[in-house]
TrEMBL record:
It comes from the Bacteria. InterPro entries: DUF6458. Residues 55-65 have a biased composition (Low complexity). Residues 1-64 form the DUF6458 domain. Residues 72-87 have a biased composition (Basic and acidic residues). Pfam families: DUF6458. The lineage of its organism: Bacteria, Bacillati, Actinomycetota, Actinomycetes, Micrococcales. Keywords: Membrane, Transmembrane, Transmembrane helix. The chain crosses the membrane at residues 29-52. This is DUF6458 domain-containing protein. It comes from Agromyces bracchium.
Length: 87
């Protein structure tokens, strides 16, 4: 969602800054375009950072022998840094 919003902001800003040749007395459309392009770049970078952070995970696998039965027991744990629960 944030990547799409960043791309849309950047595209609208580029159209305002480079493609639109319209003079309005009360606003500078070229400056608004540059501001939208900068905002779009910031949103894209934040979206990439948040996606990379969300996808990182820690996985632990332990194997032990049960002393009572002699069976091998394997225990798998997976957790994410932003998630406090352990599966």
């Amino acid at each position: 969602m944030s990547l799409g919003l960043g791309i849309v902001l950047f595209a609208i800003g580029a159209v305002l800054a480079f493609a639109l040749n319209l003079a309005v007395d009360w606003i500078n459309l070229q400056m608004v375009g540059y501001i939208l392009m900068a905002a779009g770049a910031v949103v894209i970078i934040l979206g990439i950072i948040l996606m990379a952070r969300r996808r990182s995970s820690v996985s632990t696998s332990r194997t032990a022998v049960d002393p009572a039965t002699g069976e091998r027991v394997t225990r798998n744990e997976t957790s994410r840094p932003d998630d406090t629960t352990t599966i």
